[in-house]
Every structure is written in structure tokens, then in C-alpha cells.
Write a structure and sequence with these properties.
This protein is mainly alpha-helical and 399 residues long. It has one domain. Helix content is 43%, strand content 7%. The strands form 2 sheets. It has a 3-stranded mixed sheet. Helix 6 packs parallel to helix 13, helix 10 packs across helix 17 and helix 13 packs across helix 15. InterPro entries: Coact_PPARg (IPR026784). It comes from Mustela putorius furo. Keywords: Receptor.
Length: 399
């Protein structure tokens, strides 16, 4: 158990969870880490961590580091952003909730070391990421009220904090009307479609249809599913959603569990092979009725969930259109080598239009205009699969 991680550690880096990590010290000084929290909150976070009731919260609070050493992304597809960047604004708001954002002037603004893999990042140095100010109606609640308060009204404040982390406070009413387990899925889909301009109506149809059909599928049926071919974009979209579910677990933990964790476990709302089937069907122009397998009950739920996501996106000035419509209106936007747009970066507000995701700087690193377009074979293992004459890349870096 000890030798395995040691073999993967580079000469300039030691994983925060390796046996000697504590000897090297924390990236956030003790007084900075707990100045606004109180020493007891780290113990509460540790207790949840030991009982597997939270995800990454204790790591952020105790060492000021967070890791994601693997990803499933097509390095040749510039129309889809890396999951490391898509969910960074959410993580930054979680940092503000857990560590403070330095606005009070009494303490310096903390930074968190992010070891996130993406194309062109050899993981020799972490991205130094600062908290992002939250916009929550009534102000940002403190950890004492989120974690320890048992009054009846506090659950509403916890939900406000969760939606604030995704910057979706305006969608609270619509999401509250959605039944479980689809409430969390809709929250994630709204965030994704607002952030990533290259997602289209067919993608939304596939995500919703697979979630509805999954409820009636047995394990044997899922195993026996046969796909005509593998589409790299579908694989990356599935990976992007699953990474979003893990991000949702982090947010839910940090906010005091306003939602049941079981509602966004992948086996309840997402299956990769089933999604791939629905994605291929949607790409071929199959009707919504066919996507939900001619089930009237599912069809009704499909339109209800789609309406929630689309209306919430319209509030954020994001209109979801079909792929064919997007091609006719904006040539090249939907192409695999197109100029995809990602709306939010580390210090970027949604008040303006999106910017190209590869132009974002990595935390506090010096900006290098070619940084995101480089890929060094020495940065990790690159496994290539030729599926349907398309090159798909899987990178594993310093797991």
C-alpha cells in the first residue's frame, strides 16, 4: 500500500495523502486556515471524512490541497473543455465557504493547491487557485449554521449555499419542483449547459432520456446493451457528467447535506453505456418517443425535466439549440475542431460572453499563450484507441 503511491510520486512532488505528507507541512498556515472557522470544524470535517460521509472537504481544510490525477478526454477535440476548468468556479466557491475569501480584511485570501490533470499539464506544480466570492440571497452562511445548526429553517439556507456554489440561485424554485433523484441531475445539467456553449439540444435529450430509462433497467439489461460504434465525444460527455456528480458530492458535503447523497450516486442517475446508446440515437435524429422507448410516463417526465433545464438556461442568457441549427447559424461552432466556448474562468463573471476555455490561465501560474496546446509525452501515460477512425486519448498522470 505504501510502495504503490511512492512509485508514482515525481521528484518535485509528494501526494498529499502519502505517508510522509504531514511531515512536509500544509500549504495553508494553521492560523490562516482556521482564523474564521474555529479549530473544531476541522475535527467535524475529519469525522465526516472517516465515516465516508463527505468528499474532499477535509483535504481542503486540513492541507489546502485537492487532487484529480486522471481524466477521460479527447485531447484533439477543442470544442469540449476539460473537466478541470468546467468545475473550477464551483470548487472556488466551495473554498470561499470553507476557508473564507479574505473580504473581511482580517486575514489574507487563502489559496488552494489544485493538482488537476488536463492536456498539456505535466503536474510538476499545482495550480494556485483563490476562492471565488459567492452570491447568495441573504448573504453567505457560516459553517456553524450549515454544519451544526439543527433549527427547521436551516435546511433552506443549506440549499441556498449549494445553489450558490453553482451560481444557480435564480433556479431555486424550478429545481425545488423536480422530484428525486432528478433534482440534482437537473442542477448539474443547467450548470453544464450554461458553462459549455458547445453542448446542444441532442446532448440534453440523451442525458435526460438515459436517466429516465435507467430507472427501469436491470443490471443484466445494461450489461447486454450493444452499441453500433463508440463515439469519442459521447465518452467525454459521459466522463464530464460523472465528474460533475463527484463535484456535487463535494458541494453537498460542504453545505451540510441539503440533498441526500444517494440521489446523485451514478448508479441512480447515470449509466455510461446507456447514455452512449441514447447519444447515438439522438445524433441519428430519433424522436423523443424513441429515446424514452415509447413509454408515456417517461415521455411526460422527459418534457418536464427538459423544460426545467431550458427555462433555467434562458435566465442565464443561454438558449439551447439543436446541432443542425447551431451549424446553420454559427458555422464551425459545433465542429470537433471548432472554437468551443467556456463561460466562466477563475476570475471571470458570467456578465459577459464566454471565452475560449484554452485561454484560461492555470491559477496563479504565469500566462503562456501556448501552454494549453502543448502535450508532452513525458507528462504521463497516453493510451490511444482508434474508434470509428477517430483518435481517442486517455491520460493518466501521477495517480
Amino acid at each position: 500500500m505504501r510502495e504503490g503511491p511512492m512509485r508514482w510520486e515525481g521528484p518535485e512532488r509528494r501526494l498529499s495523502w502519502s505517508p510522509s505528507a504531514d511531515e512536509e507541512g500544509s500549504s495553508i498556515p494553521e492560523e490562516q486556515r482556521r482564523c474564521s472557522l474555529g479549530a473544531g470544524f476541522c475535527e467535524v470535517a475529519r469525522a465526516h471524512h472517516v465515516q465516508a460521509e463527505s468528499y474532499l472537504v477535509y483535504s481542503i481544510m486540513s492541507s489546502g490541497e485537492i487532487e484529480c490525477g486522471n481524466t477521460l478526454e479527447d485531447a484533439l477535440d477543442q470544442a469540449l473543455p476539460s473537466q478541470a476548468f468546467v468545475y473550477r468556479p464551483v470548487r472556488q466557491r466551495v473554498y470561499a465557504l470553507l476557508l473564507g475569501d479574505g473580504r473581511d480584511g482580517a486575514s489574507p485570501c487563502p489559496t488552494v493547491k489544485e493538482w488537476f490533470v488536463y492536456s498539456g499539464n505535466p503536474l510538476r506544480h499545482p495550480d494556485l487557485v483563490r476562492p471565488l466570492q459567492m452570491n447568495i440571497p441573504g448573504g453567505t452562511p457560516d459553517l456553524k449554521s450549515l454544519w451544526l445548526n439543527q433549527e427547521p429553517g436551516v435546511q433552506g439556507r443549506r440549499l441556498d449555499a449549494l445553489l450558490g456554489c453553482f451560481d444557480l440561485s435564480s433556479s431555486r424554485e424550478e429545481l425545488q419542483a423536480v422530484e428525486n433523484p432528478f433534482k440534482a441531475l437537473c442542477c448539474l445539467l443547467i450548470y453544464l449547459f450554461v458553462q459549455v456553449d458547445t453542448l446542444c439540444l441532442e446532448d440534453l435529450h440523451a442525458f435526460i432520456a438515459q436517466a429516465l430509462c435507467l430507472q427501469g433497467k436491470s443490471t443484466v439489461q445494461l450489461v447486454d446493451l450493444q452499441l453500433d460504434y463508440i463515439d469519442p465525444r459521447a465518452v467525454q460527455l459521459g466522463s464530464l457528467l460523472v465528474r460533475g456528480l463527484t463535484t456535487l458530492v463535494l458541494v453537498n458535503s460542504a453545505c451540510g447535506f441539503p440533498w441526500r447523497t444517494s440521489d446523485f450516486m451514478p448508479w441512480n442517475v447515470f449509466d455510461g453505456k446507456l447514455f452512449h446508446q441514447k447519444y447515438l440515437q439522438a445524433e441519428k435524429g430519433h424522436s423523443v418517443e424513441a429515446l424514452v422507448e415509447q413509454n408515456r410516463s417517461r415521455l411526460t417526465k422527459f418534457h418536464a425535466l427538459k423544460s426545467v433545464v431550458c427555462k433555467a438556461c434562458v435566465k442565464e442568457n443561454r438558449r439551447i439549440v439543436s446541432r443542425q441549427h447551431g451549424r446553420s447559424q454559427q458555422p464551425g461552432r459545433w465542429g470537433r475542431q471548432g472554437s468551443g466556448s467556456h463561460r466562466t474562468s477563475s476570475g471571470y463573471s458570467r456578465a459577459g460572453h464566454g471565452q475560449h476555455w484554452r485561454d484560461q490561465g492555470a491559477g496563479n501560474r504565469p500566462y503562456d499563450p501556448d501552454h494549453w496546446r502543448r502535450y508532452s509525452p513525458s507528462s504521463g501515460f497516453q493510451v490511444s484507441y482508434h474508434w470509428d477512425q477517430k483518435l481517442y486519448l486517455i491520460q493518466f498522470q501521477s495517480c
